[in-house]
Structure formats: structure tokens, C-alpha cells
Design brief:
Elements lengths: L1 E3 L4 H13 L4 E3 L9 H11 L24 H11 L11 E2 L7 H10 L15 E2 H25 L1
Parallel strand pairs: 1-2, 3-4
Helix pairs in contact: 1-5
Length: about 160
């Protein structure tokens, strides 16, 4: 099972959880599976023949995101969905982690502590997600979906 976003908080968290659970996985970076290039995605998925893909790739520096639209999570999800309509896509945005200083919540805390303003999108609602809980819940969901699909195939 490929996990995109090798250098990010979420990618590392999913890889660690897979190791703990004994789930075979491949942690990919932009060289191994570049979600900004549909051909790269198709080639990687053909080579890996995955039963699931966990997409943790995406540009997290919100103030720079407009200039990097092809690296966005939405673009990455669209590339994956175009290849397989059955794909389970989980999109994350704001999250916090006890392990990483670059998380959304830590940026807010640092800005407030330093007396600086913190700019956030005015047209969205943010509900920060605790990384360990998100990873456990998503891996459970991916496994349930896999088992359900296998049962559907064997019954048909």
C-alpha cells in the first residue's frame, strides 16, 4: 500500500502506524510518485498494484499554496480519483501533533505567544485533527473497506 508524503507529518505517522500493525506499505516521495503528474501516478500504481493508497501529500504552507496549486491535496486527490473511482480518499488539512512543531496548532500558539497576528482563511471552518487519532481511525477504515470489498467479490 503506497503512502504519499514521505517527508510530511501525516506520511510519517501513517508509515509508523503501519509498521506497528504489520501492514505492508511503501512510503513515497515526489520522485517515486509525483501526484502533480498523472502519468507518474498511473505508472506507480501499475507497478505497485496497491489494495489502497493513503494520500498524505500536499503543500502545507498555506500562504504559498496559491503558487503551488499542482502540489495541493485537492489536485492530488483528483489525480488518484481519475484513475480509480473506487479509491477511498481522505482529505486532511489542519491537524496538530505532539511530535511536530510545523503543525497548524503550533503555528497559532507561536504567533499568539509572540504577540503576532495569525492569518487564516476567512471562508472556511477549521476543525484541527489530532494526528494519532486520525491515523488510527483511517487505517481502521481502510482495512474495513478492503474486507468489505473482498466479501462483496466472493459473494458475487
Amino acid at each position: 500500500m503506497p503512502i504519499t508524503g514521505a517527508t510530511g507529518t501525516l506520511g510519517q505517522a501513517f508509515a509508523g502506524a503501519c509498521l506497528l500493525r504489520g501492514i505492508d506499505h511503501v512510503l513515497t516521495d515526489r520522485q517515486g510518485l509525483y501526484l502533480g503528474a498523472p502519468r507518474s501516478v498511473a505508472c506507480a500504481l501499475d507497478n505497485l498494484s496497491p489494495w489502497a493508497v493513503i494520500n498524505c501529500a500536499g503543500w502545507i504552507r498555506v500562504h504559498e499554496a496559491k503558487d503551488r496549486a499542482k502540489d495541493s491535496k485537492a489536485h492530488a486527490d483528483a489525480s488518484l480519483e481519475a484513475l480509480d473511482r473506487r479509491a477511498l480518499l481522505v482529505r486532511t488539512a489542519a491537524f496538530f501533533s505532539p511530535y511536530v512543531r510545523q503543525s497548524f496548532a503550533m503555528h497559532i500558539i507561536e504567533a499568539l505567544r509572540d504577540g503576532r497576528r495569525f492569518a487564516a482563511a476567512s471562508d472556511g471552518v477549521i476543525s484541527p485533527t489530532y494526528v494519532p487519532d486520525l491515523v488510527r481511525a483511517m487505517l481502521d477504515l481502510v482495512i474495513i473497506v478492503r474486507i468489505t470489498r473482498r466479501l462483496q467479490v466472493s459473494v458475487a
